[in-house]
Amino acid sequence: MRIRQKMYVVVCAISLLAVCCASWANTPKWFKNAVKTSNHQLLFMADQLKDVQGKAYFPRTLKADGSYVMAKVQDWTSGFYPGSLWLAYKLTGNEDLAKEARKYTNLLEEIQYYTGNHDVGFMMYCSYGNALRLKPEQKDTEILVNTSNSLCKRFNPEVGLIRSWDFGKWSYPVIIDNMMNLELLFWASGQTGNSKFHDIAIAHADKTLKNHFRENMTSYHVVSYSVPSGDVESKGTFQGYSDSSAWARGQSWGLYGYTMCYRFTKNPAYLDAACEIAHFIMENRPSNKDYIPYWDYNTPDIPNASRDASAAAITASALLELGEYIKDSKLSDSCIEYAENILKQLSSSDYLAKKSENKGFILKHSVGNFPGNSEIDVPLNYADYYYLEALTRYKERKKFN
Ligand code: GLY
Prior knowledge:
Structural class: mainly alpha
Largest sheet: 3 strands, antiparallel
Helix content: 40-55%
Number of helices: 13
Strand order of the largest sheet: 5-6-7
Radius of gyration: 21 Å
Bound molecules: glycine
Number of strands: 9
Strand content: 5-15%
Order of helices and strands: HHEEHHHHEEEHHEEHHHHEEH
Distance between the termini: 31 Å
């Protein structure tokens, strides 16, 4: 190498280093602490799990005695721990996280043929989907396409929706959470060129928009349909306070779901829906300086009711995407600012675990199923997942290093 070329290489390297240092220096302290804590917690958890026996591999939450509740591969939450490891890898570049992420992702391989629930989108797109984006291996695409075909088996063309559950009193239950599984189908349509996946996703999103929402754009949790007519049979709740209440996580699933549907379709009806849901969430926060919702917007024990950090994390992630699509800059900024405020609050000691506490879960204070007296004021693996996803979206938007 000639002397001038060598000097050029050195100058470039110094400039790059200077840019990186400046960017890191501009990164807010709360964000750096959130990333460092997440990195530590997830690896601490991996270490705690080294000697897991049996087939329940995935940490879901904690029992009252502080021990893990472990989930089997068929559990709707099984993809979130591998997904969190992938997202933390994206945030930090730490190869130890990627190694654990791949190990836990591959444990889910059999789910590609699973048709027992509608949650395979959560389970596989959060695990294999992130794997494919960040450190792909040869089989990842095929596994995700097979999973999409399995999910389509739950679509009844006469009803025009994907069936959510096979248990309970309903003829054909569809829950608002199911909007989240459509992301896998949109991806599969783009990947394979097969419009079947896209058509099913659109049919589901359109009929859900028609029947799941009230006038104020809050949503019912469960809408059940008659078969084969496809007429609405009942509207109500399973995890909310009452049939007419606004269950907090349900509102977040709807917000995220329609924002994501707009990403793939550019259908303005989906964008409008997302904006109206966002409006309800932002207008109904606990107070001007408090962004973490109670577990249900209508629970009568407010202000003493439990908070749901998982709903807040899902909302933050969704708003960071929605803010990118809204043309009105004031409205767009208010979404981003709201998401930032959620993230700051979740990253405070009120919600963020101290290192090596919380058994390695990142966030405290979520609610799984209050009426079922299950998972009340506990860490939840999906709260951690959407918190990390929101941090990655925030980092990209702010262009932190
Ligand atoms: N999808 C179930 C829940 O949000 O609890």
